[in-house]
Design a protein that fits this description.
mainly beta; 7-stranded mixed sheet; 4-stranded antiparallel sheet; globular
Length: 116
């Protein structure tokens, strides 16, 4: 059974940092690209960052380039999102996800709130 469990969200002041984690199980983790999405209130879910199975290639939304870093540890079946220089517009629920056989799998999400 596939499980994706996000953690690490919370309340942070503008300019601060957070590190999100996603623990994966139930599939061959290293074989799949992993993605982080976010969804702010009243907005569509958007792709934030992605990383290939081996971790050699990463991509980012323009809005987070230079501030966020996606990484993975295939030995631990973990994917991370290091978020620096956080802005109020980064406030959202953050989800990790992967796709297998045309089906998208999602975690339950973790809330990130950037506010003074």
């Amino acid at each position: 059974q596939v499980q994706l469990v996000e953690s690490g969200g919370g309340l942070v002041q503008p300019g601060g940092s957070l590190r999100l984690s996603c623990a994966a199980s139930g599939f061959t983790f290293s074989s799949y690209a992993m993605r982080w999405y976010r969804q702010a209130p009243g907005k569509e879910r958007e792709l934030v960052a992605a990383i290939t199975g081996a971790g050699y290639i990463t991509t980012y939304a323009d809005s987070v380039k230079g501030r966020f870093t996606i990484s993975r540890d295939n030995a631990k079946n973990m994917v991370y999102l290091q978020m620096n220089s956080l802005k109020s517009e980064d406030t959202a629920v953050y989800y990790c996800s992967y796709t297998r056989g045309g089906v998208d799998f999602w975690g339950q999400g973790t809330q990130v709130t950037v506010s003074s």
